[in-house]
């Protein structure tokens, strides 16, 4: 395929519009996923995707437009194909790769991607077009064929033995399995892994079966507590029940697991297989912790301003006899500040409650998004002198939505950029029109967000451990912002690296006349 010669600018007039409509319908009818990115926009965002691309990835168009294509690789960033794609885009070359991608639900799929530049009449690259096909089934078939050829003679020899032990094997599984399940040989080599294990830890069967347990995923299962369980405890011939292990996996973050292990027994003898059941209790333990943290934080955050207000009011009462002084006015201003702080906390809690109950109201009116962003930023700048908040770009677009709620989102994101960048005084905001969406990006140069915290940053009451210790708050501002944008048929996401700052971006559909 050579799409570098494709030039939609040659279409003009009613005949051109007819051809363009025909081309778009043809693209939408294709079985292959097709995207177009705008090379003139920062970060080369996606401006078009066909229906097949939505079907293959599991994302809707609203969640795709405005993103860079790399979002499909999630945290799996070490693939050499990513560098090859980047080099071809920089040099304006055609490219074909087979790369691991992840669907919206987290499922792994293999993507065969063809990428080509699109040039204008002057020979300048204006866009890139990508065509992708899901080749997961082909990959699996190739692997299965190789395995089948290598094991066919061995299967014939082992078949009779497997039939005799099958009943015992299934009985042992019932005694041990809870969620993820591995079957190991005496050398701790994986003989089989169930689908739940593969999905939970985002690996494929060919990456797991036949490998030493400790070497799985670039040695990410090389865990001291796990070795203690298998090498010291299990050989005592006692089953291991609810052995708790916590480990930080490079690609999926920290996991808290309950391990249960059992040796297969037959006629009083321990056979050469070990069943290892793994229950992921990370979310359950996190919910318990966040519930306790929320009660503690809420009581502290609400109690502190109330106590201060009470003391200041008592002071004002004693000062009334001497008339109103400058000290009296200053004290009154402090009262107002703490009242506003308390009011904001209560408003956020009420917004969260309304979102959860589905009773949040939208007052839909058309408004100029460019003016809204600049007005909101100007108001924030007045309260934080000394900060350099730069707004660039424009969309010239009219949005239909709740103007006050969108302003609240911008205010939350810019305020967070200031709050979590204690060593920096610079904030960059960019406005752009991407296809039929407006994209707003707020970039800071602060502490950044870890890969472990990033997937959960928009969850209700979620706060990273190191942030919770340094900065006050209840962890609901980003949750509210995410829900507001979702209610406006847009998408809010973050790109960040620890120590290099964060970029929060959201898209909103442009109003049709």
SSE layout and pairing:
Blueprint: H1 13-29, E1 33-38, E2 46-49, H2 51-57, H3 61-64, H4 80-91, E3 95-102, E4 108-119, E5 125-134, H5 136-176, E6 180-184, E7 190-193, H6 195-200, H7 216-219, H8 224-233, E8 240-249, E9 253-266, E10 269-280, H9 282-319, H10 326-357, E11 365-368, H11 369-383, E12 388-392, E13 398-401, H12 403-419, E14 426-434, E15 437-444, H13 465-470, H14 477-487, E16 491-496, E17 502-509
Parallel strand pairs: 12-14
Antiparallel strand pairs: 1-2, 1-5, 3-4, 4-5, 6-7, 6-10, 8-9, 9-10, 11-13, 14-15, 15-17, 16-17
Helix pairs in contact: 9-10, 10-14, 11-12, 12-14
Total helix count? 14
Radius of gyration: 29 Å
CATH C-level label of the largest domain: Alpha Beta
Mean pLDDT: 80
Poorly predicted sequence stretches spanning 5 or more consecutive residues: 1-13
Termini, distance in Å?
A: 38 Å
Q: What overall form do the CA principal axes indicate?
A: flat
CATH architecture of the largest domain: 2-Layer Sandwich
Strand content: 25-35%
Number of strands: 17
Largest sheet: 5 strands, antiparallel
Structural class: alpha+beta
Question: Which topology of the largest domain does CATH recognise?
Answer: Heat Shock Protein 90
Q: In the residues, how many domains can be counted?
A: 4
CATH superfamily of the largest domain: Histidine kinase-like ATPase, C-terminal domain
Major beta sheet, strand line-up: 2-1-5-4-3
The level of helicity is 40-55%
């Amino acid at each position: 395929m050579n799409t570098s010669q494709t030039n939609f600018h040659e279409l003009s007039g009613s005949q051109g519009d007819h051809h363009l409509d025909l081309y778009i319908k043809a693209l939408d009818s294709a079985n292959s996923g097709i995207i177009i990115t705008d090379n003139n926009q920062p970060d080369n965002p996606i401006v078009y995707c066909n229906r097949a691309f939505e079907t293959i990835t599991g994302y809707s168009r609203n969640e795709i437009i405005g993103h860079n294509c790399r979002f499909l690789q999630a945290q799996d960033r070490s693939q050499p194909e990513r560098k090859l794609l980047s080099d071809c885009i920089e040099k304006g070359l055609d490219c074909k790769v087979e790369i691991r991608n992840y669907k919206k639900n987290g499922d792994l799929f293999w993507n065969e991607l063809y990428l080509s530049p699109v040039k204008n009449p002057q020979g300048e690259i204006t866009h890139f077009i990508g065509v992708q096909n899901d080749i997961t089934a082909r990959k699996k078939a190739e692997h299965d064929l190789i395995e089948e050829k290598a094991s066919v003679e061995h299967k014939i020899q082992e078949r009779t033995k497997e039939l005799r032990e099958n009943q015992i094997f299934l009985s042992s599984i019932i005694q041990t399995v809870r969620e993820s399940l591995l079957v190991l040989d005496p050398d701790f080599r994986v003989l089989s892994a169930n689908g739940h294990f593969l999905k939970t830890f985002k690996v494929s069967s060919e990456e797991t079966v036949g490998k030493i347990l400790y070497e799985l995923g670039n040695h990410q299962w090389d865990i001291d507590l796990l070795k203690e369980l298998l090498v010291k405890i299990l050989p005592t011939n006692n089953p291991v029940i609810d052995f708790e292990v916590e480990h930080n996996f490079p690609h999926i973050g920290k996991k808290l697991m309950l391990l249960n292990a059992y040796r297969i027994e037959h006629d009083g003898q321990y056979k050469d297989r070990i069943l290892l059941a793994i229950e992921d209790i990370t979310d359950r333990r996190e919910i318990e912790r966040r519930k306790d943290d929320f009660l503690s934080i809420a009581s502290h955050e609400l109690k502190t301003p109330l106590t201060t207000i009470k003391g200041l009011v008592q002071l004002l009462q004693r000062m009334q006899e001497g008339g109103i002084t400058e000290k009296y006015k200053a004290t009154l201003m402090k009262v107002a500040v703490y009242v506003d702080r308390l009011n904001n906390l209560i408003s956020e809690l009420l917004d969260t409650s309304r979102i959860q109950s589905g009773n949040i109201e939208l007052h839909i009116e058309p408004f100029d998004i460019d003016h809204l962003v600049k007005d909101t930023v100007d108001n924030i700048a007045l309260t934080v002198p000394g900060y350099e908040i730069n707004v660039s770009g424009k969309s010239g677009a009219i949005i239909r939505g709740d103007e006050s709620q969108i302003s609240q989102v911008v205010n939350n994101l810019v305020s967070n950029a200031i709050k979590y960048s204690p060593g920096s005084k610079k904030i960059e905001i960019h406005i752009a029109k991407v296809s039929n969406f407006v994209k707003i990006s707020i970039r800071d140069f602060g502490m950044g967000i870890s890969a472990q915290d990033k997937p959960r940053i928009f969850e209700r009451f979620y706060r990273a451990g190191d942030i919770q210790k340094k900065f006050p708050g209840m962890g609901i501002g980003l949750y509210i912002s995410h829900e507001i944008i979702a209610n406006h048929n847009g998408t809010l996401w973050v790109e960040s690296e620890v120590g290099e700052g964060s970029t929060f971006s959201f898209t909103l559909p442009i109003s049709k006349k």
